[in-house]
Each structure stands twice: as structure tokens, then as C-alpha cells.
Amino acid sequence: MQHKILIIDDEDDIREVAALSLESVAGWEVVSANSGAQGLARAIEHQPDAILLDVMMPGMDGPTTFRELRKNPTTARIPVLLLTAKVHSSDQRRFADLGVEAVLFKPFDPLTLSTQIAAVLGWK
Amino acid sequence: MQEPTRGVTITGSGQPVRADRAGLSRIWPVLAGLAFGSVAGAITVRLIAGPRLDGPLLLAAGVAGVTVALLFLRLQFRNRAPETGPAPLGEMLERSGEQGRAEELYRQQEILLNSVADGICGVDRYGLVSFANPAAARLLGATVSGLTGKPLHDVLHGSAAACIQCGEECILRRVAVNHEASSGEETLFRADGSSFPAEYYITSLLDQGRFSGSVLSFRDISQRYALDRLKDEFISTVSHELRTPLTSIRGALGLLSSGMLGEMNDKAANLFRIALTNSDRLVRLINDILDLERIQSGRKPLIFRPVQLEEIVRQAIDGMQPIAEAAGVQLTHDTTQVEIAADPDRLLQVLTNLLSNAVKFSPPASTISVLLRPGVGGVTLSVIDQGRGIPADKLEAIFGRFQQVDASDSHQKGGSGLGLAICRTIVLQHSGRIWAERNTDHGSTFHVFLPFKPVPPDMPDSAFNLVEAPPSAQTIEDK
Questions:
Q1: Chain B hits for A25, Cβ within 8 Å
Q2: Residue B53 domain-assigned?
Q3: Which of A45, A114, B156, B331 is the most exposed place for a label (fewest CB within 10 A)?
Q4: What is the CATH number of the domain that holds B242?
Q5: Cβ of B247 and A106 within 8 Å?
Q6: Fold of the A4-121 domain
Q7: pLDDT (tens digit, 9 = 90+) per residue, B380-419?
Q8: Which residues of chain A are within 8 Å of residue B249 when distances are taken between CB atoms?
Q9: CA distances from B161 to B147, B148, B166, B192 (A)
Q10: What is the pLDDT of residues A55-74, one digit of tens each?
Q11: Using CA atoms, how far apart are residues A44 and B383, in angstroms rounded to an integer?
Q12: Which domain holds residue B57?
């Protein structure tokens, strides 16, 4: 089934690789944003099935963006998966407490990224 | 043992106490003029008491003299009945020599205790602070006299706000009651209610097998905590900064080498495979460095619970099976039901590392066996391979960081060179032991001994014996 994913990450290369992975491996539609603010706008505009959200971003970081997404009634129900290069257990606990669907770690395997997302969200 | 000092009043006036012979003869025991040192003391003795001492002497001393007088009395009458008869001057002179030595010893002790930066408190058998050095008072924001005579726990935790007060289980409360030895890190509270992290050691003192009190030493480790936080942040940042470019590299190579984006010739495919394998190796290396650092620093504490070892062995073998199959190596196990207290995730990491090493160095069609043998006090896990074996001079070195049998191993086998260092750190935290042996025919065996009940690391012995417990003014006056 085709899904629409919004990738929010300030790193152009990572956005591109992740988008290519989801498009070519799973055949999903991908929308990208390079900042929290842009991500928020794209989420409202595109209403994706899920959001892949980077944690460390200048300006509005991942957790702040997540809270903003939850505040807005039009995006409050979109599942969010954090994508982070932070692997400290204290960070992980902090992220888990936010209420996101899952925390995925960088580097990810581009061949299994879509299956990981699908497994978390119960997509067939 | 008779106690010679009962009823004796000792005053520290700073001046010699003069008394006539009649007055002196009414009291007992003998005290020398300690404040003047041995010779002057002896002369004073002679002046007042005459050539033969037929009555008690004066006490003359400042505070130090009084303390040494008490020490002297204790040393003199420790193991024998007090002398009630007249003592010759020669004996007095000899004793005053001992007094001089005792005084010197006392002065040395006082200098040491006053100059150390660690707080030191003596605690009597009832759990009351009988002595505190100036550093203890400074660290706790109190005066020495304000600390002495109080229960140890009140001194260290008494000023904590009601909402954060510790319960009956507080280790510092228990040691005073149960006469336990202990060490570790605790938050201590200053007199004004503010707190600081401290490292402490409490040692029980046994006087001829009988508990006579404890000694507490402690130090403020706020600075170390601050440094740990800095190091933590640094490692977290470095890890993040390394992972970010690696994510793009690993992702791009993964997509390219899958052939999903278009066909490529064999040479190009091979180069992509090499680049992909090495980027994976770099990721493992970063993960292992982080892991080792966190386990060793104790920031990733072990969570001990009852563990069925057989289950851990099965899980490790199941996880390693695909890699073993790809290498044409068979994994077998001969285990029995054994339960120990351990951190299951960490033990699985140890066994997975050992199996992964064994598979890497095993020729195709060989077998790797895992044995589980309960013994006295614990259980031994063995991973036996039929690989190339380890030279005798490397059997111990391989547990160090970045130590491999052959320098080219990390390139050819793709290891980080940290796997066995991680294993050893985890096993040590289980109070266990890990070592390697050469098999008689070929290959090597890695043994892990795990005690049924591990004890937390860095615990001192429960108590050590002091043959001569130092007397304190408090205890002698009490008698």
C-alpha cells in the first residue's frame, strides 16, 4: 500500500538518502522539510501518514517540533518517529517520554528503513 | 581488667596543678607532668613527691597534655592491675620516656588528621561521632565540636529537608547500627541543608575481636561529577557528529550496492561491497567505544535479577546462527538449568561477543561448543572453538583495548578490537572472571566464571582487626 511520509531533517544528504530509500524500496511517496518550522507547514499542507523527525536541528529542534505538531488539531494524530544519532540512554529515555511512536537510530539501513517504520505503525 | 582511672578528674588548665603532698596522697593514680616533656616532668615529680613516690602526682597540662595523659594511662594499665604501692623514681623516668613517645605519636597523628583534605570521623560503638577532623567540619559546614557526640547519620543526613529525607534503609544509618563496613557514593548534607555528592568509606574497628567503633572518611566529588558530565556531553556530541555523515555514507552505499538503482559491473559492485562493509565496521567501532566508556564509567549500571543461564546461551546461539551458517560453522551447546543473579542483557552481550569471535576464527565445517558447568560458588561458561588458536603470550593481552592476535585481524575480520575488553568489563562487574586457554589439539576456549551471588565491586572487607585500638578520651572517661 502506498503511504505518504514526511521527512524533517536539516541534513540535505540524509533527507535525500532516506527519501530515496523509502521511494525505491517501499514505493512510498515522500515529502521533505529542512527545518522544524517548514516541517510543521508541510505536515499541515500534505497530511502525511507518518512523520520521520530528526532530533538535533537548529532553531526548532525535534522535540519542540513534535510538541507543535501535537498542539495543532490538523496534525495532532499523525504518528511521529524520531530519527536520531543520539544513542545515550538518558537521551533515549527523554525521547521515549515525549510520546512519539518510536525512536530510530542513525545510521539506518536504507534497505530495511521502510519495514522498520511499517512494523512500528502496524502497516501491512 | 581493672580500670585505674575511675573517678580521676583531669583538667586542662594550661598550668601545672600544684598540690601539697597531703592532698595528693588522697587521690590515685599516678600522673606525670606531661606538659613539660619527660625530663621536666620527672623533675617536677621529684620536687613534689620526693625521691620515692609515695603518693599520687600532680596533673599538669594543656589540652594536648590531658589527652596524652589519658593515652598514657590507657597504655600503662591496659593489661595489668594498677600499681597501688609506691613507685621508684627510675620507673617514673622510664614511664616519662614512654609518655614523650606517646606525645610525639599523638602530635604526628594530629598533624596528619588536621592536614588531610578528606573528612575523617571516628564513630564509637554506639554510633556517635567521637572525633572529627577539621576537614570533616569544613565539608559539612559545621564546627568540630558541633559534630562530636551526635549520631553519625544525623551529622551526614540530619539537615536534609523533610521531603528528601532518607528512610530506615539508608546505608549510612545501617552501618552505624549493624556495624557494617561500607563504601560508595552518597549525597551528604551540610549543616545549612545544602548537599554535595561524596565518596565515602566506613571501616569497622575490632579491638581484640570486639566491635569498638568505625572510622568514616569522605570527600566531596562535585568536581568529578562535573567532569563526568562534561565527558558525557563530549562523547555524546562526538558520537552524534560522527554518526551524521556516516548515516549518509552508509545509506548511499546500502542503496547503491543493493543494485536497486541500476545494474553495475562486477568491479564496481565489489568496490561498493568493500565500502559498505567498512562503513558498517566504523559504525560498530563507534558503538563499541561508546559502550565500553559507558560500562566502565558506571553510567550504564547493571541491573541484576535472577537469570536462567541456559536461556541466555540459547538466545546467543539463536542470534549468531545466521552468521555461523554463512561461515559453514556449527554451533552446539551442552547446558544445564542454572540460575544466577546477573544482568541478562549484558551477559547476552558477553556470550554474543565470544561466539562472534569464535565464528570469525573458525574454519568451515568446524564446530563451536558452549558448555555450562555449575561448580563451587558459581558457574563456568565455556566457548570452545576449533580455530587457529591463540599464542600463549597473547592469552591475556587480547582482553585489552585494540589488542588482537594479529594486527591485520581487525581489517580481515571486521572487529572493532574492543569486544573482549567489553566482555571483561561486564564479567568483572558481575564479580566474575574471564580468561582464554589454548586447546590441547587446536583452537581455543574462552571461560567465564560467574558467581551465583555477585557482590557490588569495590567493597572493602567487612572489617579489619586492630590489635591495639587507639584509646580515645571519650572511652576512658566513660570507664
A1: 260
A2: yes
A3: A45
A4: 1.10.287
A5: yes
A6: Rossmann fold (3.40.50)
A7: 999 999 998 888 888 888 898 877 666 666 556 667 788 8
A8: 107
A9: 19, 22, 10, 10
A10: 989 999 999 999 999 999 99
A11: 56
A12: 21-114
